[in-house]
Structures are given as C-alpha cells and as structure tokens.
Amino acid sequence: MDSLTPSDLFSPSKARQKRAQAQDWAHIDSWLSYRYAGRTVPMFERNEETLKVLRELSMANERADEERTALERLEREALKELDEVETHDDDQRILSQLRTSLTPEGEQALDALASTAVALNTPTANPEAIAHALIQHTTASQKLTNQFAHMQTLQRYLDKQQSLLRAQLHELHTKPAFTTPSNLQRQTTEQTRQVKHLRTKIREYEDKLSSLQSTHNRAMTPGSQHIASAEALSETLEQQKALDELRERVEGLEREVGEFAGLPADREAARKEVGKLEVRLDEVRRRRDELFEGLMGQQ
Asked: Which of 76, 101, 126 is the last residue of a domain?
C-alpha cells in the first residue's frame, strides 16, 4: 500500500480514499490472520486489484460462515422439536394409561380439573392455585363490569349534553333575537363620538359655572350676602339644570357604549361573541332552574 504523499495531505478526497484503503487492508489482515490460525500469511503484492479480490473473497467467506451458522441453528432446533415430540408421545401414553385406570367419575373430575387449569391459564393443576386464580379472575371481571357500567352512564350523559348543545347551536343560528344588528359598528362609533362631544360640553359648562361662582363670591359684600340678583340666580340655576341634563345624558350613553365595550370591531366576530354570551346566559339560567327544582324537590 502506498503511503500518503505531501500532496495528499492537502487533498481531502485523496486523504479519505487513502484512509478507506487503510481500513480495508486492516480488515483483510485481520481476516487472513484468523484464517491461517497462527501460521505465517504468504507474501503478496499489495495493490488495488489485490485488495478488491481479497475484499470480495472475505465477504463471500463471511456469507458462507453465516449460512453455516444458520444451518447449524436450524438443525439444533429440529432436534429439539423431535425431542419434544417424543416427550409429548410419552405424556400421551401416560395419560392414556391413567384414563384407563380411572372410574367414569374420576375421569370426569380429571377433565374438569384440566379444563379449569387451561381456562384460568395456571401453570399447575393444584386446587389451591386454581382457587387463587379463580378469585383473581372474578375480582378483575367485577371491576371491569363496574367500569363498563360507569362508561355507559358517562356515554349517555355526553350524548344528552351533545344533543342540548346542538339544539342551542341551532337556536343561535336561526333565532332573529341572537342576530347582531347590521349597523352595530356604525352605532358604536356614533355613540362614542357623542360621548366625547358631550364630555367636552360638560367641561365647558363646569368651567363657566366655576367662573360665575367665583365672580359672584367676589361681588358679594358682607352686608349684601343675603341679597342676590334674581336674574343671576335664575341664569345659574338654568345652567346647573342644563349641566345636570347633559351629565345624565352622557352617563346614559356611556352605559349603552359600555355594553358593547368587550365586542370586537368586526361585525361577524361581534356576532359570534354575542352568541357565546347568550349561551353562557342560557347555561346560568338552566343551572338556576335546576337548583330551584332541587330545592322544591327537597321540600
């Protein structure tokens, strides 16, 4: 095998090729040493053609070894099966002799014992072991029966709830009462604009009222505190009344807008949100009715 040259050190592909050849030659040397079993391996020319032939020869030899190993394992399994068949024949002979020696009642009892042991999958026909296995199977069967009954009850409850939800969903899709108004977004925008406008007016009137009160307080003398201008008082009362009306109107609009505060701006999304709230309302009402019916039943 040629050694690496300085030019190969700077060529990754050549370096990989040389490394692969070195590994192949190491495998061939190990294989030849194993085959010659301590004897001296004959000398031969080490080139790519020789490496290729030896590699194919070693692979063919390994396949032959694998086939021989598989054949030997198959022969061992066949011999084992033959031994089991002979043992089974002996068991059949013993069982036949035992049956001929038993009375009809004894043969029936033996069949019952064997059938029970097979059905319970017990490794022995000992009555105590069969009794323990029978108790375990009975306990497991009872647990499974109870679980199955519970699952059936749960299934019926889920079917009932599904029917109720489908009915509510159909009602939400068909009843006009649950339909979101088409102009909901426009109404919300208009009411928000009115609230902002009225809040500005309220601040203006409050500033005017504060200014009038300050002017009135400065104009009052200690001797004329009990004498007020009827015209100024009337104007002040009218402005106070108008201010109260505006405040009530703003509060009413804020309440109306607050009802739609949590809704999205998109009409379809707002409609879906209203539908969800209606479903929750129906659930709360139904829960209230159930509690009321339970209290009436207790009385």
From this structure: 101
CA distance 21 to 27: 10
| Helix, strand or coil, per DSSP, at residue 42 | coil
Q: What is the DSSP string of 37-68?
A: TTSPPPP---SHHHHHHHHHHHHHHHHHHHHH
CA pair distance 262, 280, nearest whole angstrom: 15
151 inside domain: no
Domain membership flag for residue 142: no
pLDDT at 142: 92
Last residue of a domain, one of 68, 101, 134: 101
Evaluate whether residue 107 is within a structural domain: no
Q: What range defines the domain where residue 262 resides?
A: 175-218+229-298
Q: From the CA atom positions of the chain, what is the Rg in Å?
A: 51
Task: Indicate if 179 and 288 belong to the same structural domain.
Answer: yes
Statement: residue 148 has pLDDT above 80:
yes
* pTM of the full structure: 0.29
> Quick one: pLDDT at residue 225?
47
What would the pLDDT profile of 85-95 be if each residue is shown by its tens digit? 555 556 667 76
pLDDT above 80 (res 28): yes
> How far is the C-alpha of 155 from the C-alpha of 158, rounded, in Å?
5
The residue among 188, 168, 185 whose CA lies nearest residue 278 is 168
> Worst-scoring range by mean pLDDT, 2-6, 71-75, 178-182?
2-6
Which letter does DSSP use for residue 176 in this model?
A: G
Please tell me the distance from the alpha carbon of residue 20 to that of residue 7, in angstroms, as a whole number. 17
